Every structure is written in structure tokens, then in C-alpha cells.
Amino acid sequence: ASGKAASGTIRVGLVESIALTWFQNLLTRIEERYPRVQPEIDVDLSSRLANKLGRRQIDIALLPGPIQLPSVVKVPLGSCAMKWLGHPKLSPKDREMTAADLAELPIISMPQDANAYYSIVNWFEDAGVTPSLVHRCNSSSVVAALVRRGVGVSLLAPDLFADDLDSGRLKILIEETKVFKVEYTAAYLPGVDVSILPEVAALAKEESWFLGSPQVRAKSFGSETIMPPPRRP
């Protein structure tokens, strides 16, 4: 069927980091190609989205981290490097920051059932130190706002905070030779009665910010900015 002939509802699950960056572009592309299809948008943590996908409560998921579902179809959306970001005032002025220094600061993390939480836990375990205080928050944009205000530090993607880093509002606190990356995926299950899922996954791959350097971006993740118009392949 042509795009204009397709009709009905498609349930799209996605994490907040995608919802507040390039999803608007993807949504515009879906509306243009399938004007009679109505998207239902579910923003949640990656682990919860994977569970919803397995229970077929959503049709397609755009999320980071491993997806352990039998027969799941996965379309890679690229990867995003993660580093410790914080307000410049939290960084030592006379030397490089160490893992022990970082452990003395409030750590702002996602909840315990989020992949990002275990990334933080594993990082400190590898460094051989234990953070003194960990705040958990289920909103990526709130985590970003707290880090900008100097409330604490978090393991974040510098690519999504380019404007903050360029302006000096945020700083990469620890430069590491070992780069930690998060892989993003568009995932759906075969046999679902939504024939446009492969095309939607392909559109997501075209719009993903995590595949190379896009031509245009919003200023920073979670900031009050108007998104640029969708890029055309």
C-alpha cells in the first residue's frame, strides 16, 4: 500500500534523550509519509520500554542499551559517547579531577532500573571508589537541569550538550582515554500487524543524531530551543 493508503495507530516508545532532540524531525517525516497514521508516543526508561515491547504494548521502541527479546528486529541508530559533566566550579582549579574527587560530589543518576544507572555503578566499581551520595531521578531533562545548576554531576553525552560546553556552563570533568559508548536501536517484533514498522525504523535511522554528525542540531539537550526543520536524505 502507498503511504497515503496506510491508516490506523502506531505506538512509538522512546527515551527522553531522543524525545527532546531529534524525535520531532522523525515525527514530521512520519506524518508526511503516512498522513492517515496516528502516532501514540510513550516516553519512558529504556528497560521499561523493552518490557512494553515484549508485551506488545508498543509497536516500536527507540532506545539505548541491549535488547534481550526473542526474534526482535533491531535497526542500529548509532552510538553516543558518555562522559562526566558538571558545573566548572566543581572541578579542582590546580589539578586534574580524579575518580576519588568525583565520588565526593553528589551524583545525579537515573533510577535503578535504567541502563544509565548501571553504567554509573560500573564506572565507580572499575575506579575502585564508592560515591558518597547518589540522587536518582526518572527525568533526563531534570538531571540535565540539576547538573547545569551545579547541584551535582552525572554521566552524560557531550554531543547533546555542545552549547553548554562551548559557553562554559558545563565542563567535562574527567578526560579518559577509554571511551564509554551507548548504542541506540530502533526495535520491533515481527508478526505485529503494523506493516509500516520497517519504514518507520528506516526513517529513525535517517534522522538519528547518533550516526555521525548531522548538519544541524538544537543548541543543547533539555534547553528551551526551537528544533531545526527535518533534514532530508
Explain this structure.
The protein is α/β, with parallel strands linked by helices and 233 residues long. The protein is built from 8 helices and 9 strands. The chain has helices spanning 16-19, 23-33, 46-54, 99-103, 115-127, 140-148, 162-167, 197-207; strands at 7-14, 36-43, 60-64, 73-86, 106-109, 133-136, 154-156, 171-172, 180-188. Strands 1, 2, 3, 4, 7, 8 and 9 form a 7-stranded mixed sheet that branches. It has a two-stranded parallel sheet with strand order 5-6. Strand 5 (106-109), helix 5 and strand 6 form a beta-alpha-beta unit. Helix 2 (23-33) crosses helix 8 (197-207). The two termini are 22 Å apart. Mean pLDDT is 87; it is low at 213-218 and 224-233.
Main attributes?
233 residues, alpha/beta, 7-stranded mixed sheet, 8 helices, elongated, disordered C terminus
Write the H/E string, N to C.
EHHEHEEHEHEHEHEEH
Strand content: 15-25%
Total of DSSP H or I helical runs spanning 4+ residues: 8
Beginning-to-end CA distance, first to last residue: 22 Å
User: Quick check: average pLDDT?
Assistant: 87
Low-confidence runs: 213-218, 224-233
Query: Which structural class do the helices and strands define?
Result: alpha/beta
Annotate the secondary structure layout.
Layout: E1 7-14, H1 16-19, H2 23-33, E2 36-43, H3 46-54, E3 60-64, E4 73-86, H4 99-103, E5 106-109, H5 115-127, E6 133-136, H6 140-148, E7 154-156, H7 162-167, E8 171-172, E9 180-188, H8 197-207
Parallel strand pairs: 1-2, 1-3, 5-6
Antiparallel strand pairs: 3-9, 4-7, 4-8, 4-9
Helix pairs in contact: 2-8
